[in-house]
Write the structure tokens for this entry.
Amino acid sequence: MLKLAPEAQAAAALASTPATVALRGVVKEYGSMRALDEFTLEMAPGEFVALLGPSGCGKTTALRSLAGLESTDEGEISIDGVDVAKLPTNKRDIGMVFQAYSLFPHMTVLENVEFGLRMRKVEKAERRERAQEALELVGLGDRGARFAHQLSGGQQQRVALARALVTRPRVLLLDEPLSALDAKVRVQLREQIRRIQTELGITTLFVTHDQEEALAVADRVAVMRAGRIEQIGTPEDLYVRPATPFVADFVGLSNRLPGVLKAGVITAYGSTFELLGDAQPDGDVLAYVRPEDVVLATAPGTTGAAKGLAATVVASSFLGSLRRTAVRLEDGTLVSVQHDVSLQPAPGDAVTVSFRGNPVSATPAE
Ligand code: ADP
Ligand code: MG
């Protein structure tokens, strides 16, 4: 018989039937504060959705409402088409991981992972076996006898993940599980979470305020603002076709260039750009142009396809595989350009910039 690695065996044992999740028109108010404003999100079975947005936009409230930790004022919440709005948390079949380490300090790692099974009155031998399996899944099969304080932050969050998965929930909810960790561990752990999620096929909602993290792990990213989802799509969709300036600004960097919108086309500095998103009235606008959609040339006045606008280099930073350079146009507008490391502009250099002309989002100019 084929011998599977302990992680793969554990994944097979812990897999559950993936569920659909739907929140429709959910409203949650704290006094006069509308934390969720007709919040709507539908997730396919096995899908990994990142809920991305600035602090205070309602991400935690959305997650807690789905988990039943928060009562809601209006709207529907269903799992696999069944209304769960009136069900208590422990009947919703959900696993959760929070930002702060939430392990019980007086219990061993294994006892922490067993906890949910004990609540469900699973007998001891089976409890032990399943908790051990969940620890294997997160690569901590040999740490069951330790206490939380004997583990690193990243290991503690892996234990929290094992504890959330041990009951074979249909839905996994993670609320900024990586934000207390240092950068390198954060990247390793997000990859591990994604790998485990894929192996288990569990429908997962992952809350973060970190756009890079959201783009890196999710099947779809939902950008949230003031209690509702402003746009949801694949990472590529959001980056290339942001529906609003808020999304363009939140996902990646953008320059804001003054231009004129007419019939869905923006003209700025002699270049034209198709407008993304909903139609807008003609007039003066600010166009959101990505640094990688600007082309830098270091020899002004040379003849060629791109004539370019005269500009002066303000600063340039080396970012490993690329450089980002800030230049000032003759009208004073600052433009950030992303380019190959073979170009090494210095502050004060005279350069030219031109635009690739990819579609952009825009706001009316003040
Ligand atoms: P996020 O997780 O995106 O940072 P939250 O969902 O925690 O946002 O909060 C959304 C809004 O609801 C915020 O304005 C917050 O201050 C408010 N809020 C959250 N929880 C409570 C509460 N228990 N009582 C009063 N206001 C709350
Ligand atoms: Mg939060």
In short: Residues 183-200 form the longest helix (18 residues). The pocket of magnesium ion (ligand 2) is lined by residues 59-60 (CB under 6 Å). The first strand starts at residue 21 and ends at 30. The chain has a mean pLDDT of 92.
